[in-house]
C-alpha cells in the first residue's frame, strides 16, 4: 500500500514583473521523508518554500497537507494554522529569552507538559545543559541545535528548512547534518529542505528536486540524479565534468577515445560526451610509450600533463590531448604529481559516460 503524501504541491506558478520565478512546479513529500529543493541562487526554490509556508501567495496552483487543501488562488489557510514548522539559516532565536523559553515559544499546553517536551528535545540535541543559557552565550552549532528543537517542539506535520546549515563552520556541518537527520527521522516529520549545495542534498535527502529557471528539471533519489542526469547541466551541478564535443555521422561520433554510439541523433548534429574526472583512468606504466593500451570498448587517448595538484585526499591532474589539444581533468586517489609535459595514455569507462544532444 502506497503511503499518502503529507505534502502535495500541484502546478505552482509565481511571477514577478511578468517573469515566472516558479514555473509549474509539482511534487509530493511523504511522512518521514526528506525532500530537497536543490539549485543555484535565483532558481525559485526559496520562493517555492515561502509559498508552502504561507508567507507568499502563488498566482496559480494548489497546496495540500494530508490530502486537505490549505491554499489555492481562492482559499488560504493562515500560516500559523498550517501545522508547518520553519527553520532558517539565521536561526532567528529570540535574544532576550533563555533556551528553555525559545524552545517552548510555539507550545500551547500547560507548563508541566511544555517543560517536559522542552527537556526531551534539548536532551536529544545534546543541549540540556544549556537550558538556562541565552542565545548570545552559544556557538553557531549550539544555536542551530536549539533552533531545530524549537521548530520540532509543536510536532509540526511538515518542517521547512531554508539553507539551515550555511552559517555553520564547514568542519561542523556534516556532524550536525547527521544529528539533525536522525532526529527528523525519529520524529517522523516530512521535511522540505532548500539548499544550493549538492553535497548537502546528497547527504540528507531521500528525494532531490533539481530546479533551474523556476522549473523542476529532474527529481528522484540522489543515486538516480547522480548516475542518470537528465542533461549536461544536471551532471555538472553534482560534480566537475569533462566535455567532448563531436558531430554525429551514421549514429556514431568520433572522439580521441574512439567512436561513440549516438542512436537517435540525426547526422550533422553535435553531441556532448560528458565524463567525470574520477572516471578518466591513467595508464601509469606505459606513460605514453609504445602502442595505445586496450581500453574498455574503445581506444586510449594520448595526452600530456599540464599541471598536477594535491588536494588532500586525491590529486587533480590536468591534461591536454595530443589529438586536438582537448583539456581534460582526472582525479587520482592519494598523491600523484607527474611533471608538466609527461605523456600518458588516458582511458575511460564507457558505462560511466553520458551523451547529450548539444544545446
UniProtKB/TrEMBL annotation:
Keywords: ATP-binding, Cell inner membrane, Cell membrane, Ion transport, Iron, Iron transport, Membrane, Nucleotide-binding, Translocase, Transport. It comes from the Bacteria. One of its GO terms (biological process) is quaternary ammonium group transport. Gene3D superfamilies: P-loop containing nucleotide triphosphate hydrolases (3.40.50.300). PROSITE patterns: ABC_TRANSPORTER_1, ABC_TRANSPORTER_2. Residues 7-238 form the ABC transporter domain. One of its GO terms (molecular function) is ATP binding. GO terms for cellular component: ATP-binding cassette (ABC) transporter complex. PANTHER family: PUTRESCINE TRANSPORT ATP-BINDING PROTEIN POTG, SPERMIDINE/PUTRESCINE IMPORT ATP-BINDING PROTEIN POTA. This is Iron(III) transport system ATP-binding protein. It comes from Paracoccus homiensis.
Amino acid at each position: 500500500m502506497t503511503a499518502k503524501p503529507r505534502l502535495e504541491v500541484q502546478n505552482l506558478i509565481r511571477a514577478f514583473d511578468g517573469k515566472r520565478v516558479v514555473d509549474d512546479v509539482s511534487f509530493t513529500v511523504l511522512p518521514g521523508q526528506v525532500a530537497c529543493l536543490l539549485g543555484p541562487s535565483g532558481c525559485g526554490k526559496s520562493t517555492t518554500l515561502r509559498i508552502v509556508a504561507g508567507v507568499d501567495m502563488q498566482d496559480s496552483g494548489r497546496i495540500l497537507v494530508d490530502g486537505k487543501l490549505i491554499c489555492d488562488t481562492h482559499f488560504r489557510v493562515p500560516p500559523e494554522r498550517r501545522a508547518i514548522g520553519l527553520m532558517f539559516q539565521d536561526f532567528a532565536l529570540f535574544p532576550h529569552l533563555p533556551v528553555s523559553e525559545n524552545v517552548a515559544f510555539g507550545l500551547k499546553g500547560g507548563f508541566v507538559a511544555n517543560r517536559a517536551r522542552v527537556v526531551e528535545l534539548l536532551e536529544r540535541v545534546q543541549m540540556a545543559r544549556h537550558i538556562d543559557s541565552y542565545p548570545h552565550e552559544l556557538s553557531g552549532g549550539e544555536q542551530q541545535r536549539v533552533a531545530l528543537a524549537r521548530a520540532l517542539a509543536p510536532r509540526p506535520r511538515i518542517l521547512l528548512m531554508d539553507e539551515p546549515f550555511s552559517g555553520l563552520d564547514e568542519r561542523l556541518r556534516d556532524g550536525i547534518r547527521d544529528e539533525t537527520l536522525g532526529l527528523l527521522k525519529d520524529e517522523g516529520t516530512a521535511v522540505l529542505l532548500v539548499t544550493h549545495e549538492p553535497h548537502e542534498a546528497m547527504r540528507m535527502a531521500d528525494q532531490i528536486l533539481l530546479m533551474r529557471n523556476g522549473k523542476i528539471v529532474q527529481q528522484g533519489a540522489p543515486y538516480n540524479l547522480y548516475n542518470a542526469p537528465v542533461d549536461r547541466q544536471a551532471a555538472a551541478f553534482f560534480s566537475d565534468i569533462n566535455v567532448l564535443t563531436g558531430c554525429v555521422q551514421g549514429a556514431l561520433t568520433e572522439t580521441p577515445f574512439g567512436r561513440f554510439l549516438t542512436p537517435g541523433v540525426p547526422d550533422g548534429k553535435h553531441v556532448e560526451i560528458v565524463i567525470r574526472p574520477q572516471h578518466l583512468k591513467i595508464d601509469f606504466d606505459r606513460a605514453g610509450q609504445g602502442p595505445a593500451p586496450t581500453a574498455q570498448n574503445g581506444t586510449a587517448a594520448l595526452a600530456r600533463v599540464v599541471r598536477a595538484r594535491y588536494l588532500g585526499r586525491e590529486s587533480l591532474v590536468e591534461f591536454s590531448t595530443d589529438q586536438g589539444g582537448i583539456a581534460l581533468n582526472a582525479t587520482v586517489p592519494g598523491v600523484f604529481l607527474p611533471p608538466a609535459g609527461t605523456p600518458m595514455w588516458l582511458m575511460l569507462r564507457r558505462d560511466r559516460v553520458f551523451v547529450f544532444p548539444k544545446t
